[in-house]
From TrEMBL:
It comes from the Bacteria. Pathway: Metabolic intermediate biosynthesis; chorismate biosynthesis; chorismate from D-erythrose 4-phosphate and phosphoenolpyruvate: step 3/7. Belongs to the type-I 3-dehydroquinase family. The keyword Amino-acid biosynthesis applies. It catalyses: 3-dehydroquinate = 3-dehydroshikimate + H2O. Keywords: Amino-acid biosynthesis, Aromatic amino acid biosynthesis, Lyase, Schiff base. PANTHER family: 3-DEHYDROQUINATE DEHYDRATASE. Pfam families: DHquinase_I. The active site is at residues 143, 170. It comes from Virgibacillus dokdonensis. This is 3-dehydroquinate dehydratase. Its EC number is 4.2.1.10.
Length: 254
């Protein structure tokens, strides 16, 4: 499987990487979250820009992005605008999504961009192309906040994402029972053993899904999201708790 190198971080190698999301609505909240997040020494910081109150103003976004870059020094930065229909905070037009992401990609401030699989194909391909031209890593994602699709459907989504020009792929689903969590883990293990050519991230959300957030090393999921102040999705544990469990599993997996 191909690994992805972002600064000094090798995604797809060793212990799953810890990503801390920033969910502040205002500059002040974001600053506070960033300073707490930095203390946890994450492998990556995710700015969930859909939570930012002024996200519909691209100039404001770029200004803040410059600030964030300065504040986090060399920590890899993932920029995510999660669309409303995949669990995000704000609804915007597809045109705005494209314009926002292309400007952010070209800003020079980010390392990784989240692009959703199920946006219109031409827009998705254009964004991937711009990211490639600007040396920004593409994390292609898909979220189901209601259900855990059938195993073959989950596998098909991961493979479909892998077959685009994305660098890393991610699937998050919502389990309704314990079986659903086990199915998600089974799909991850199948990816690891048979299909994975690129690093992948698999998540079962909600309280039932915690096993999937801590068990990535066993089934091949390359990263996990842990909070500093605010969780960005149901079932997310803190980055400190995550680190302890991931390190323990890593130590005994060798
Ligand atoms: O897509 C993901 C994964 C996530 O939804 C989770 O369940 O940890 C959290 C989001 O911030 C991130 O963009």
């Amino acid at each position: 499987m191909k690994r992805v190198k972002i600064k000094d971080i090798h995604i797809g190698k060793g212990m799953p990487k810890i990503i801390i999301p920033i969910m502040g609505e205002t500059l002040q909240e974001i600053n506070h979250e960033l300073s707490e997040a930095k203390q946890e020494k994450p492998d990556m910081i995710e700015w969930r820009a859909d939570a930012f109150l002024h996200v519909t103003n691209i100039e404001e976004v770029l200004r803040l992005l410059a600030e964030i870059r300065k504040l986090i020094d060399d920590i890899p930065l993932l920029y995510t605008f999660r669309t409303y229909k995949e669990g995000g905070r704000k609804e915007v037009t597809l045109n705005y999504y494209e314009e926002l992401l292309s400007q952010v990609i070209q800003s020079g401030f980010i390392d990784v961009i989240d692009v959703e699989l199920y946006i219109e194909q031409t827009i998705r391909e254009r964004l991937v192309q711009i990211a490639r031209q600007n040396n920004v890593i593409v994390l292609m994602s898909n979220h189901d906040f209601q259900t855990t699709p059938a195993n073959k459907d989950m596998l098909a989504r991961l493979i479909a994402m892998q077959e685009t020009r994305a660098d890393i792929v991610k699937l998050a689903v919502m389990p309704q029972n314990e079986e659903d969590v086990l199915r998600l883990l089974q799909v991850a293990a199948k990816m690891k053993s048979t299909y994975a050519q690129k690093p992948f991230i698999t998540i079962a959300m909600g309280p039932l899904g915690i096993l999937s957030r801590v068990g990535g090393e066993v089934v091949g999921s390359a990263a996990s999201f842990g909070s500093a102040i605010q969780a960005s999705a149901p079932g997310q544990i803190t980055a400190a708790e995550l680190r302890y469990i991931l390190q323990t599993i890593h130590r005994y997996s060798k």
